[in-house]
Structure prediction request, 1640 residues.
Amino acid sequence: MKLNDHASGRHFLQIPGPSPVPDRILRAISLPTIDHRGPEFGALGLQVLAGLQRVFQTQHPVIIYPASGTGAWEAALANTLSPGDAVLMFETGHFASLWHKLALRFGLAPEFLALPGTDAAGLPNGWRRGVQAGLIEERLRADAGHQIRAVCVVHNETSTGVTSDIAAVRRAVDAARHPALLMVDTISGLACADYRHDAWGVDVSISGSQKGLMLPPGISFNALSPKAIAASRTARLPKAYWAWDEIIESNKGGYWPSTPNTNLLYGLAESLQMLHEEGLGAVFARHLRWAEGVRAAVRAWGLETQCVDSAVHSPVLTGVVLPAGIDADRVRRTIHERFDLSLGTGLGKIRGRMFRIGHLGDSNDLTLLATLAGCEMGLKLSGVVLAGSGVQVAMDLFAAQPQRAGAPVS
Amino acid sequence: MKLNDHASGRHFLQIPGPSPVPDRILRAISLPTIDHRGPEFGALGLQVLAGLQRVFQTQHPVIIYPASGTGAWEAALANTLSPGDAVLMFETGHFASLWHKLALRFGLAPEFLALPGTDAAGLPNGWRRGVQAGLIEERLRADAGHQIRAVCVVHNETSTGVTSDIAAVRRAVDAARHPALLMVDTISGLACADYRHDAWGVDVSISGSQKGLMLPPGISFNALSPKAIAASRTARLPKAYWAWDEIIESNKGGYWPSTPNTNLLYGLAESLQMLHEEGLGAVFARHLRWAEGVRAAVRAWGLETQCVDSAVHSPVLTGVVLPAGIDADRVRRTIHERFDLSLGTGLGKIRGRMFRIGHLGDSNDLTLLATLAGCEMGLKLSGVVLAGSGVQVAMDLFAAQPQRAGAPVS
Amino acid sequence: MKLNDHASGRHFLQIPGPSPVPDRILRAISLPTIDHRGPEFGALGLQVLAGLQRVFQTQHPVIIYPASGTGAWEAALANTLSPGDAVLMFETGHFASLWHKLALRFGLAPEFLALPGTDAAGLPNGWRRGVQAGLIEERLRADAGHQIRAVCVVHNETSTGVTSDIAAVRRAVDAARHPALLMVDTISGLACADYRHDAWGVDVSISGSQKGLMLPPGISFNALSPKAIAASRTARLPKAYWAWDEIIESNKGGYWPSTPNTNLLYGLAESLQMLHEEGLGAVFARHLRWAEGVRAAVRAWGLETQCVDSAVHSPVLTGVVLPAGIDADRVRRTIHERFDLSLGTGLGKIRGRMFRIGHLGDSNDLTLLATLAGCEMGLKLSGVVLAGSGVQVAMDLFAAQPQRAGAPVS
Amino acid sequence: MKLNDHASGRHFLQIPGPSPVPDRILRAISLPTIDHRGPEFGALGLQVLAGLQRVFQTQHPVIIYPASGTGAWEAALANTLSPGDAVLMFETGHFASLWHKLALRFGLAPEFLALPGTDAAGLPNGWRRGVQAGLIEERLRADAGHQIRAVCVVHNETSTGVTSDIAAVRRAVDAARHPALLMVDTISGLACADYRHDAWGVDVSISGSQKGLMLPPGISFNALSPKAIAASRTARLPKAYWAWDEIIESNKGGYWPSTPNTNLLYGLAESLQMLHEEGLGAVFARHLRWAEGVRAAVRAWGLETQCVDSAVHSPVLTGVVLPAGIDADRVRRTIHERFDLSLGTGLGKIRGRMFRIGHLGDSNDLTLLATLAGCEMGLKLSGVVLAGSGVQVAMDLFAAQPQRAGAPVS
Prediction:
């Protein structure tokens, strides 16, 4: 197995996940596999479970699945709902749409709320903004019979670069005095953006390994609330692999009922240690600063970010909208071929209109400036007329503001 | 992340999976994660999918899940069956029992055939022998209305060290002229023991990464037949993450609909390359020879193997039954503490009565002799009176018969 | 052993050696150490010896020492000279001066030719230009009695960024009809700049692992000519560890008389394979293009390169002279602390006046642009007034000229 | 770069060095190379220099060379002696002979003391015993004019498996009231056998990385005394690369005057950490126990060890003498081909008569039993009639005596 044989220098993986994996983590996952029933493993299990609680900011159980994030979406629904249950979802972009599609396919009755219409650029309004808590509140108030069993939203919409206000969604549910469970996909938000499972009253948080945790893909998570656990006792969708009960029981000793993903758990232990060493507050501040630099570059180029609400720009990634008539995927290919830089494609309804720059994982000021340089050169080579140099503006910003340790997270 | 800090020398992981992972594979999985939507990934995907077909000896699709083997059990059922369907399963040991329990939990109506009774040693007769094809044929003949939708058996029962005759099961189903699907768990059999998905007419074969493929756990497989694919089109159990249709479609280009387990796929590519270099026939012959050496040692000690039918001894592992009154887990702990050697515990109905020696993965004559030496010393230290030296007998056997390349697999 | 624990992202090692080591090579050196007397080792030895001949462009023996480049300097002298021998050396910078000092210390009588004087910037004239072949010819002509036993020059002067014309030196020696041996230090030139041991009539070429070969430091080389080998038979300086005769004899089977540096030889095999895959011509073209980009940036900043002769700019590194009154090492420290970027210090007579940017090893357009961005930000932060943006100019240049495979080296 | 592609399982490297390198160390040496002039490096340098002092049990400087042990032999002589100096050496085996040859070649006048004669087996008496301190005392007493400038002996003779009593040599020199320097090669003794540079009054201790320190080859050491440092100020052999003075000066900050072997120093830091975690006393006890087990096996086979003086059996390796008429190298080849086990060859005067089993490095009871099993099978396959099973005896011994932490080293 060889990668990138002929090229000189490191590939720049600047998609919004899988993120560039730090060497420390790559080394950890290559340690010899051990007996998942032995005492050394139990200690590892307890360590990663406790560390995940700190990252989700929760006192309640966190479930680790050997599965991708899609599996963790399914797990959240399978554990808490019954066939045909009504679910309220909100269309913030492609990943919200995929979760909606999964719910449909899984035999639920999801309702997909969205901001209507498209804007001047022909892009759907709802894909440029966050979850509209007001619409959710309104819909829940109308559900006098409490048919809706769950509200499902995406925290950080990886397809657009919008980080929704989850606390506002919680307040909306509470204001409507509605008993629905609140389920939040923070697959790409966790460990990049502040996320507070307990404080925000989330019932099931869904996340994955390959974004802020900086691991390869392959494990994903459900963080639970007591209300979600209670719901799982009566929910009637079939569940076995995903079932929380046996996992929670087995986790008490640091073990799992079926074979865990041992080597990725080594990586998770290393990741949690790195996050602990730096401090979550500093981690969040670091991503905010990077995002600010990248957005400044996009503005300097005279281009628009996909997100148009300055309150909800993502610290994790930035969507860059290209002028009409420019095929964003052709630009991406040029950049990939010429500068060995991978960017995220436009997904679903905005395919071909934009690309996405990930600013997460094993990065620093210089790798981000290199990324912006690759974009800037590639845009020009593709015939996009730029208003100015984004690299220059980002250099000025990074030089002016040293990276600082963030305030501690309360 | 550090393992085994204070000890000198390598740990001996001789459980029947996860198997000792070769360095080549550990190195492969630590390569930098790449874009799972990029061209380099597509080539990797096509390569591992083709390689898996060779290992399953099939022309039909093989599905790769980021999941443990338990997930692949669930996937096989979820894709092909409808709520409440009758399924015929056969109790060969603990893993057959776990699959049965999963089917129950998943809303099916599994019937669990078994050989009745216990033997003189107090061990269940069915846990010392393979699948009884005659009993299956008899039961299917009695199912005139064809209510039974699937026959589910375990190829290599990891809890006992018995490798059942799958071709005989196929003949039994055919003899009964019954339309049930044949599903086979070859999680620990694949790539150790000869396994022929197409030739044996298996509809769904289930396997995992952490046994004969010598990978860490974390990915698992369904190999399909056209009949199974047809069944999946009408089956009504909810399925989304496990659904074959989207995966088969996406696999055509070497991609997956949800995020694949990139780094374990690097390991899989390396594993398939290693199996290809050696040749499957040589791989099977190697495991058979090791198993013969280990069984000779058990006989020399004057102990019984768990398997009592010489036609179905497993090439993958050997269960060692201890004399009444000896706690097998205490023996295992002594061996682990004194000689840094992990052995498999007795599971389920035979807990405490036996332990299991894995002879698979990155091993050779000397590591197996070291394993037998650890067992022999630990048994004596635990007060087990041995009839003779198993190490001596195994040395004689290994010295007398050089490892040879096996005959090619037709 | 942990490095760089707290930082996010990769360190930028842009000193002119040790160069950034490719992952392929780091992985190779971590393979298990083998028996240096076994058959597998002999095959490895023959492989690296043949590969080195291709890189030195020679048909004659190449000696590998477990030693730094300084050791290989000493070896060249110890094998060919006798106590008190006169040697003609040329002062091109700090490394030429160190070699001269070593010769003195080693009991030889080195004469150190140099261009006289300093320029307007107060920098020694000879440290901004290459070897002056005319001065050498003149001096050799004056040595009617042929007391001078060797002419020693540096091919790529790592302290200044000047690559001297070795063919011209050869012509000078020939023109003077002088029998002196020609010894050339190409420690930092080999495998970055074109270097032709045989075609240029070099008698001993000295090189090391940690520059163009992209290995960690620890092994170094002497490439020999028949004339040098003949000289070694009568030379009277004591030699044992460095003695060519036993090594050449032992090398015939791929072995060494004393214990070789096994794991670095794994890395060397990988390095030679990488150079072979790319082709030496492409390798040289790649470094020339990078150097052009970096020099363009320096010009755009309004700063001078250390090298003032456009015929001999180094493809390996660029020296950047800072305005009078600016402490170059303070600038370097600022860049290191703020941007995790290591640059080369000014050495010897130009300490504090300049810094050096390495453009070799595991690099690409984007890592070099990141390096220039780090320099540009750090220069500004240090109060250096820049005429323009070097990053911008280098982006334009890199975008305009795709990296191409170079012409084959004849 | 691939090793051992086609084989299953780990190679057994049981030569007496290079020793099996622990994974922790292989991983450490593959960390990215850093700037050897930067602050992070200085901290590393100080750490390894301090750690080495603890291992040599000295308060005085230890010099690290990027060189093999042969280089460190030369360095010890080059720093302290002048051309033509008389040196007294003692023939304990092949490595003592090589050092003697090096001294001759280096322009010294070494005298080579030895026990005369051969024994019944036709083996040289002196190669089966340790340094005879009495002969040294006698010779020094006869040197009334103090022409002898140094006494040079080997601590652990790697070619025979004899560990000489260095304290006795010190007493002999003192008893003779002779001012000669005492130089000791502990290349294969250090960090396996107790070694006390200061307490034993050694002036220069020579060692290497690839034995008890469990590193790959490539760095070697001189531990100094104040008397040796004083001698180096007046000694007149040419020295530059080996010269202690500049290295000692540069080491004060954790740096080196020429490029150090960065990645092997990472491994050295890890090795020193491992030795520190275990404690030197426990390390020595571990090797003694292993050696006892291996010798018991040799006795059980009815064969002789090369060492015939029970007071000086080496804890590092055991030489096994084969019956007359058996070609030991043919036996070794058989063992290598059939069981993937490398053993040490007989060297020099005992070539073909014996082989050597290394019991050092990353080993444990089970790997040593595997090694003995490989030897036992190979001896039988080669037609050697064995009196009994060495494996059985070693199992009994290892089972009877658990490995314990050794007493602390005073």
Remarks:
- The longest helix of chain A spans residues 280-301.
- Chain A touches chain D at residues 23, 27, 31-32 (CB under 8 Å).
- Confidence is low (pLDDT under 50) at residues 405-410 of chain A.
- The CA atoms of residues 319 and 356 of chain A lie 4 Å apart.
